[in-house]
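ok so for the tutorial part 2 we go from a plain amino acid sequence to predicted structure tokens. step 1 is just haveing the sequence, like this:
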Amino acid sequence: MAATVSVLKLTQTHGVVKVRGTGQGTIGLASTLKKDTESTTSPVVNIKSISWSMEDTAASAKITRGGTDIFYMCNWGHLDFLGFADNEENDEDIVIQFSNGKGTIILEMLKVSGYGPQQHQDQGALG
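step 2 — the prediction. this is what the tokens look like for a chain of 127 residues:
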């Protein structure tokens, strides 16, 4: 079963996406984070913050980009990268895999480049 991917906020430089349920959900840089009015060419997206909650203590999740496991999560929590953003494998789609139960993850992301001719903000801060 696939997890549900919902866009909560989407601008030219910023995106917030919720992934919930079981199984796997993918945030496509060139699809999920692309506004209808944007074109994409080699999009680059950094992760600014992560909030999560799991159904019970047995449930967990991991975030993978380009085949590299980036974050592991269990229980509940929040990571907010103040003054910077995670840029590891930032040109790859974001895959979230839930294991042993249901969960919800909310990712705040910075669209760094590749989304058409617009001015991008600093890679690590929301101006």
